[in-house]
Amino acid sequence: MNNKNMEKYFNNLTDIIKVITKENFLGIYIHGSWAMGGFNPDRSDVDILVVVRNSLDIATQCELAKFLVANSNDPYPIEISFLTQKQLENWTHPSPYEFHYSEAWRQSFEGELLTGHYGAINNNHKVDPDLAAHIAILNHRGVCWEGPQIHDVFPVIPRTHYLSSILADYKDCLQNVEADPVYCVLNLIRVYWYVKEEVISSKLEAGEYGLNSFPQEYKETIRKVVESYQGIRVRELQKEELTSLRDYIQDEVEKRVGGPVV
Q: Rg of the chain's alpha carbons, rounded to an integer?
């Protein structure tokens, strides 16, 4: 999809969200692979944060849920979180939020919209440790699509909060590298790069860093992962090479964070 089509896509998304949230809408912001230039139309999510003035009532949340269930994956999966100005001004980690949708929630949302029981949609105790990483990336390289400038709305995320956020995903990837090798290898490398040099990167940039900087014995595995991520070719990855690379990264990360990540 070219830039003109992406502009149309984001404008349409923004227009509908503004209709649903009405005068409560403040701004919409893009982070993740599209903002950092690593967007893969066949693999990447569209990553969005929306800021609203006040809390969202259940009727508004249900309208958002209906819209996102109908439009995520058409053509791209959407990962989106809504936060109030107050939640951002009084930053805590893990951060509370008003509403969240990603494809992982599709089944729950579809069921709740059918039954009228809104446990996932309207949970009053919603917090998300991933928001620290999302906002740090937004501050670093995000895009203000509509609304006040990023630095006028979003807090500066403390390094400890960002590290806590990315290490949670890192732990999952240590366990799941065989099941989801492309995502997990690239994510493990970008966590390694951050703890080593404090560089915030996209998955593709992390893969390129690994190709340039990792020991020679791991480069062919990384090359397979990068080519698969880019859709150049799907390369077969063996268990032994994945676990060897994972163990190398784990050892290097633990050296730099002072012990095992628990």
A: 19
